[in-house]
Write a structure and sequence with these properties.
It contains two helices and five strands, in the order αβββαββ. With 124 residues, it is an alpha+beta fold. The chain has a single domain, classed as Phosphorylase Kinase, domain 1. It has a five-stranded antiparallel β-sheet with strand order 1-2-3-5-4, covered by helices on one side. Strand 2 and strand 3 form a beta hairpin. The longest helix has 17 residues. It is globular, with a radius of gyration of 15 Å.
Length: 124
């Protein structure tokens, strides 16, 4: 069966396919999840993650033309520096099982490889 092109899907259809991508990317993290919930589908897809022990994170799936690898590395270094050197409360990048701070994910239902990053969830 041939899939309808991703760009022709309404938001709900795109979100379903991106959730499949999110689940695949999350295999590379050491998180035992109880829930994955779409928060927003704008420039990026953002999913709220809840673990079986009650911790909250978010997964951002970047548009393929929006964030380069250098952009993500710079963002991660900046957030780590803010957490380490200031009293400003910012989200914290979460490493994968292998120590990377983002992964590239691909599923057949989404036409491009996309960079994914997991960070701590800050209420508000």
């Amino acid at each position: 069966m041939k899939l309808k092109p991703f760009e022709l899907l309404i938001c709900r259809g795109q979100a379903k396919r991106l959730k499949i991508m999110a689940i695949k990317a999350l295999d590379q993290y050491d998180l035992e999840l109880s829930e994955i919930q779409l928060v927003g589908l704008f420039t990026n897809a953002v999913f709220r993650l809840r673990t079986t022990i009650g911790q909250n994170y978010f997964l951002r799936i970047c548009r393929p033309d929006w964030r380069t690898e250098s952009d993500l590395i710079s963002e991660i270094i900046w957030l780590q520096a803010l957490n380490r050197n200031t009293n400003i409360r910012v989200t914290e990048p979460i490493p994968t099982k292998s120590g990377n701070f983002f992964v590239e994910s691909f599923v057949e239902a989404v036409p491009e490889v996309r960079r994914c990053v997991v960070m701590s969830w800050i209420p508000g």
